[in-house]
Amino acid sequence: MAIPSEGEIIQIHSYKHNGKIHRVWQETMVLKATKNIVIGANDKTLVIESDGRTWVTREPSICYFHAEHWFNIICMLREDGVYYYCNMSSPFVFDHNAVKYIDYDLDIKVFSDMSYTLLDEDEYEQHKKAMGYPLVIDHILKSNVDKLISWIDKRKGPFAPDFIEAWTSRYKFQKELHNPK
């Protein structure tokens, strides 16, 4: 698998289990990339939905993808604090200048006070039947919901107190490096 370079602009492609594209984020700057982790950042990036609708993200975000975990984490930097949107998903692959993963419907929204809520359980059950999620996928996803909640409770990974500060500083540095005044 290719690995993007620090400072490179890539896309993020979200698919559904049936192989159909779900959503594309047009521009994300790579802040760190290894064979197992991609950390990126974007701000006011164009997002294209599978039905062709488009929208633009409202705030800067730090995106965390891992090749061994069945979730990804979007850290949204809002005026009243950091909010996290966690997608239960396949581990990512990097292919043709894009981070790609399968979105498995379940999401965890984490608020700035680190309280959280599990979202879209009905959508998950509906898609599990409609797209025939295998039992092994169901078990992996439920186990990874527990792992993700443990990360939140223990302030691990992107939930660690210094994660946001370190990566927003890196993003500012990269933006200045690529767009000198």
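The above is record 1. Record 2 follows with the same two-line structure.
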Amino acid sequence: MLSNLQCFLCRFPVISSAILARLQGLRHFVEVARQESFRGAADKLNVAPSAVSKQIKNLEENLGVELFSRARGRAGLELTEAGRVLLFRCASVINELNIAREELDQLQGLQLGHLRLGVNEVVATDLLPGMLRNFNRNHPNLQFTIMVENTPVLLSWMRDGDIDIGLGYNVPPSPDIETLSTLYRRVYLVTAPDHRLATRRKVRLGEIAGEKFIFPDPTLALHQMLHDALERGSISVRNVMTTNSFTLLRQMVQNGMGVSVVIGRFLQNKGENIAFIEIDDPAFVQKPLTCCRLAGRAPTASSVAFAAAVRTLFAQYGG
């Protein structure tokens, strides 16, 4: 049975050594056609004019045709009909070789590059580990730098050139920030497994009145959204803890210290035993998780590949 590589190569005609031997001559031929001069081509290729002339002569002998009309002298060098046909075909070959060069450069970038990511903590603890594991498996020589902070700080780092890609919630529209992919996340009440609301699929915000509550820190956008929603609904809860760590927040919810609210429910690392109950309340709308980079800056090969992986992953989630 043929291997995958053998099956792939079977789709292509056999390349003879004679054709490969002509590649250098074709390179000289294309440059002479561009410059309309042997000397001009020699200067461009940084070789002697006699070397160019010899390459063209050998190519003409191999192909059995005359490629240039030399009757009018050096100033009037022109392609023959055969030369025009060959130049047309060479243009396609050169274009493909240029594309191949770009793809090889990108592959080299992925093999030896350095990917700098800035992410919110929820992303760092829930979504990112699985992504990095898969990405590292495909690109084992790639280096990673991961910075964890809130969205305003991530955007500041991005503008300063400290990170290549940011993954954060509630990224405000800005002409200098390019959105690569967006995932809208639902808002959930999180409780211990034995809480009275743990088995519910949805809950209204008013149903948590009087509950012991663990608040996200005021530096986080969720804090203000939650504070405003409770105030509008005249809902009172008992503040037992405030933290800027969602990992600690969920851990203390699991331990029964109180309930809280989070955006999204990735939890790829099934280390926590907590219940997610969607909050069905007009005070809360789906919040976007955005993958973005600085607009106008040439992206690295590693950041392009990572952004593609993020788009694929986002397509798998629905809230």
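The longest strand covers residues 177-185.
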